[in-house]
Amino acid sequence: EAGVAQSPRYKIIEKRQSVAFWCNPISGHATLYWYQQILGQGPKLLIQFQNNGVVDDSQLPKDRFSAERLKGVDSTLKIQPAKLEDSAVYLCASSLAGGPGYEQYFGPGTRLTVT
Amino acid sequence: GNSVTQMEGPVTLSEEAFLTINCTYTATGYPSLFWYVQYPGEGLQLLLKATKADDKGSNKGFEATYRKETTSFHLEKGSVQVSDSAVYFCALSPGSGGYNKLIFGAGTRLAVHP
Predict the structure, then answer these.
(1) What is the pLDDT of residue A94?
(2) Contacts of A51 in chain B (CB under 8 A)
(3) Average confidence score pLDDT of chain B
């Protein structure tokens, strides 16, 4: 079974520029998550989708971050404009469903450097 | 609120040594608890989990017991190998709301030397 795919793997941009990350979850997984992992810290949930609806975006900086999940499958996370403190690894994960018994499977992440 | 605290690293051990990585949590309700591992150059992988008090999760020689009275979920392995070198993350999933977002600790880097 193919895992969670993410692209690009690495991105370097200047502050105030925009950037987009793409995630393709495991086929059939209804729930999709985006996490931000700053160096030296654990991942922090940014947004959670159930199919194509948002169920938790309480920690998403909505003035600059946006995310969508097209047709309940692929997802895109965008930052516009980027700040230095956005430098991090952005992880996408998916699970079969949203309940507590369902394992989350993580992609390899996109490492963003903002200069 | 919900949070996870784990021991700071790095933890450096010789092969075949005993490993303990401490993890304590704060949570409302009845969370599920997890250990994830991140090997060099790879993504996060679930190592083990426990969903209720006194449950013991185990995998690949690692184990952890959900202790509600001490709000702890310490990771242990009796004899580590060089291949266990990785970053280990303790995490919880809040028991309420029906959705399983994960709240992670800061991670503990383990280095095992031959």
Answers:
(1) 95
(2) none
(3) 93
